[in-house]
Design a protein that fits this description.
Order of helices and strands of chain B: EHEHEHHHEHEHHHHHEEHEHHEHHEH
Distance between the termini of chain B: 11 Å
Number of strands of chain A: 8
Structural class of chain A: alpha/beta
Structural class of chain B: alpha/beta
CATH architecture of chain B: 3-Layer(aba) Sandwich
Largest sheet of chain B: 4 strands, parallel
Largest interface: A-B, 49 and 52 residues
Number of helices of chain B: 17
CATH topology of chain B: Rossmann fold
Helix content of chain A: 40-55%
Oligomer: heterodimer
CATH class of one domain in chain A: Alpha Beta
Chain lengths: 385, 412
């Protein structure tokens, strides 16, 4: 089990090594996807490898010369990585506009550092029937752009086969998550984040193979459940949370039983249907997505009295299903959608008397001691509930 | 550079008329609130307000109100209220002002409440996604319905017709919703009349702006920018077009009479971004002392409404919403800025970075560098924010402006 976990850790420490190797040996096209929500299955069906582009912990030395500093660390750091040549192995870059930063800035990547394939995609912010027509044309445009770029026809059969590979992956991740809910501590929060993140760097089939082996070993393991206080972690919308912070939470009397991270539950909670028309399946997936701070659900705002934070409802439900005692919110600096949602979320938590602590983190910011104090104080407060 | 023989007259005659229009707009809305004679809507810039006017709504613009609060130095107090409620300091200061003012209004903390209480909210994410979050919070605070228009970013891969159709479908949904909300049938003839008024107003608005192509200018950017308000909030009325017709006349007369708006006009300068509303006087004085004359700005594009066409009312409204300037990719904005520099024969640029405003600021450096490279003109980026004075460092910005003036002088 430790061997497999070490492999996942290695993938996260050198996230693009495997992709670069595949490009060199098998001449596979590699497409970098900016978080979040890009339909990787479609890239997979085109015979290319999608890899998710996270920033790095390195100080930003080149990126800030091209963009202003009110962007979040994920955007600035990944652009910095691009300028430093860390993404030189890429044949293309693709992203969905999840926020104003990606939306208004993305094209500068292509202007400053052109790649062969550059695809900007609109996923409606407002999820209703009126915006579906345009979204359908966006999915069709992605398919034809990829066909042109790779020279491979993306048939419905190929799409369904790719969707199945990704559904298998998500199903195994869900199973792993269920195991940690049933036996807290069986997989640590930082390992969980690394396992999910690794799936975004290496071919999904390879990841599925490894994850299958890990699940088999965990199921056979007789490790006892942790008796620490059960919590869930949420936040860090589109980057990978610092594993040091997750370790710190679990080293201080708490155990994480579920999460809402992009490198976590948010990534695997829902499948794309592998039957019927694949475009319809993707539309259904996005239009009926799990609540996110980057979605607008019209019915919640047109009818007064409806929930004012479907996202808060969602995480409260996660907490209750996981029989957790509280919520640790990890916030990324300069993430406007999350910071706005947090105000409403906080109100819902207070209405429901849900214990929570919110911690602002930023890659490379380092002051773990201050975070430790807050985490310890939160754990102490939970003990009396 | 201005020639001798010019007379300095700072104040525009149209200023008084503008003040009257603004007072009537806000005062009238408060009267409507009292009498409940019309439903009141709060809308964001870049929404199809024409549909609401055609449904006889009284329409208010919280972004314009935020600018007013900034100019009156009361925005900071509103922003502070939001910070006590958990809003982060870096969030859009127009948003924080608006939410703070709403909280004050709802909780009876302030007597300064110019915006009439809303019954309905309309927002578009063409300007930014942040504004939709802001309007969601308004909906929650006021417990009233919110309708959202979703606008994909305009990129070369898209056909403008598809973008317009996407917004038009949502406009038709809005009409259906409002028919139920008001119990009234939508009147397409009334929409055509309103669009015709807006079209005339926008044509005169553009004519007013173009007067500044003259050298020396009859008015500075800071003199004219307040006149954006009628085309934003009153273009459905014939009075807006009349205001701009008279403004154009006045500016052209000033050109004929050799009247200039400031002393020491030496260089024709571009302003990029939303003005720092609380610092206009200080900046005006500094710029005048340095001989930097603000001629025009890409900011005006936000208020041009140049797509309005009475021959195709709903389509032209949808087209304008889908293609608003802020909703374009950076290369389009850079080229549009370059064109302004050429059209107005500008010699330098001031790019006003706003810490809390991503759509205006995040690509600012790219656009500034583009203009600098393409036209070989000096530019500087100053730093501050829309209405929150805590982000503003006057001394630092003065040094940057001084450096710009020195660079221009060295090139002369």
């Amino acid at each position: 089990m430790e061997d497999i976990l070490t492999k996942f850790k290695d993938y996260c420490e050198r996230p693009y090594e495997r992709a670069a190797q595949l490009k060199a040996t098998r001449n596979i096209k590699i497409i970098g996807c900016l978080p979040m929500y890009f339909p990787e299955e479609i890239i997979h069906a085109a015979g290319a490898l999608p890899v998710t582009l996270f920033g790095s912990d390195e100080p930003i030395t080149l990126g800030d010369g091209h963009m202003m500093t009110n962007a979040c660390d994920q955007v600035r750091s990944s652009f910095d990585s691009l300028l430093k040549g860390k993404y030189d192995f890429l044949d293309g870059i693709a992203a969905i506009y999840v926020c104003d930063q990606v939306r208004f800035y993305l094209e500068v990547w292509q202007l400053d550092y052109p790649v062969e394939f550059f695809h900007q995609m609109w996923r409606p912010y407002k999820l209703d029937k009126s915006t579906q027509v345009f979204f359908r044309s966006e999915l069709e445009r992605l398919i034809s752009s990829l066909e042109e770029f790779t020279g491979n026809k993306i048939t419905d059969e190929k799409l369904r086969a790719s969707i199945k590979v990704y559904n298998d992956s998500r199903a195994m991740m869900r199973k792993l998550n269920d195991l940690r809910k049933a036996r807290p501590g069986i997989v640590s929060a930082s390992d969980m984040a690394r396992i999910v993140a690794a799936s975004m760097f290496i071919p999904r089939e390879e990841h599925n193979e490894l994850l299958g082996q890990l699940l088999a070993q965990i199921e056979q393991s007789d490790a006892a459940a942790s008796q620490s206080l059960r919590v869930i972690t949420i936040g860090h919308p589109c980057s990978m949370p610092e594993t040091e912070v997750l370790d710190l939470i679990e080293a201080n009397g708490m155990v994480v039983v579920d999460d809402d991270f992009f490198t976590g539950g948010r990534y695997f909670s829902k499948d794309v249907s592998a039957s019927g028309d694949p475009i319809d399946a993707f539309i259904d997936f996005y239009m009926n997505a799990i609540p996110c701070t980057t979605y607008h659900f019209p019915e919640n705002w047109l009818e007064t009295g409806k929930s004012f934070s479907p996202y808060a409802d969602y995480v409260i439900d996660l907490m209750r299903q996981g029989q957790a005692k509280g919520i640790v919110v990890l916030k990324e600096m300069y993430c406007d959608p999350y910071d706005m949602e947090f105000v409403l979320m906080k109100k819902r938590f207070e209405e429901e008397a849900i214990p929570y602590v919110s911690i602002i983190t930023e890659h490379g910011s380092g002051p773990l001691e201050a975070i430790r104090t807050r985490v310890q104080a939160f754990e102490e407060s939970l003990r009396f509930i | 550079m201005a020639e001798s023989g010019y007379q300095l007259v700072r104040r525009l005659e149209g200023q008084k008329r503008l003040a009257g229009l603004i007072a009537a707009h806000y005062g009238g809305a408060l009267e409507i609130e009292k009498t409940k004679s019309q439903p009141i809507a709060w809308v964001s810039a870049g929404t199809p307000a024409e549909i609401l006017w055609a449904m006889d709504f009284c329409v208010q613009f919280p972004e314009a109100y935020a600018a007013t609060c900034g100019a009156r130095h009361i925005a900071h107090g509103h922003c502070e209220i939001t910070e006590t409620r958990g809003y982060e300091h870096h969030l859009c200061t127009y948003c924080r002002n608006s939410l703070g003012a709403s909280i004050a209004q709802l909780e009876g903390m302030s007597t300064y409440t110019e915006l009439a209480r809303p019954d309905f909210l309309l927002v578009s994410n063409g300007s930014c996604i942040m504004v939709t979050k802001w309007w969601e919070h308004l909906s929650h605070l006021w417990q009233i319905p919110l309708f959202t228009i979703d606008c994909p970013l305009v990129i070369p891969a898209y056909n403008e017709k598809d973008l317009t159709e996407n917004v038009k479908r949502q406009c038709l949904d809005l009409i259906t919703y409002l028919e139920e909300f008001t119990g009234k049938k939508f009147d397409y003839d009334r929409l055509q009349e309103i669009v015709a008024n807006g079209q005339r107003s926008s044509q005169y608005y553009m004519a007013m702006l173009e007067a500044n192509k003259h050298n020396p200018v009859p008015a500075t950017f800071f003199d004219i920018m307040g006149h954006n308000f009628p085309n934003l909030a009153l273009r459905y009325l014939p009075e807006a077009a009349e205001h701009y017709r008279l403004m154009t006349e006045e500016l052209n007369q000033r050109i004929a009479d050799k009247i200039v708006p400031m002393s020491n006009i030496q260089y024709r300068i571009y302003w990029d971004g939303i003005p720092y509303w609380f610092a206009i006087r200080q900046l005006s004085e500094k710029l005048e002392s340095l001989g930097l004359c603000l001629v025009t700005s890409g900011y005006f594009d936000m208020f041009s409404f140049d797509r309005l066409d009475a021959q195709r009312p709903l389509d032209s409204v949808a087209e304008g919403v889908a293609t608003m300037i802020l909703n374009h990719n950076p290369s389009y904005k850079a080229k549009a800025t370059e064109k302004i520099f050429r059209d107005y024969e500008l010699e330098g640029g001031i790019f006003a970075y706003a810490q809390s405003c991503k759509p205006f600021s995040i690509t600012m450096r790219y656009i500034a560098e583009h203009v600098q490279k393409q036209l070989d003109v000096p530019v500087t980026i100053i730093e501050g924010d829309l209405v929150d004075e805590t982000f503003y460092d006057a001394e630092r910005n003065n040094m940057k402006l001084q450096a710009l003036a020195e660079t221009l002088a060295a090139r002369a």
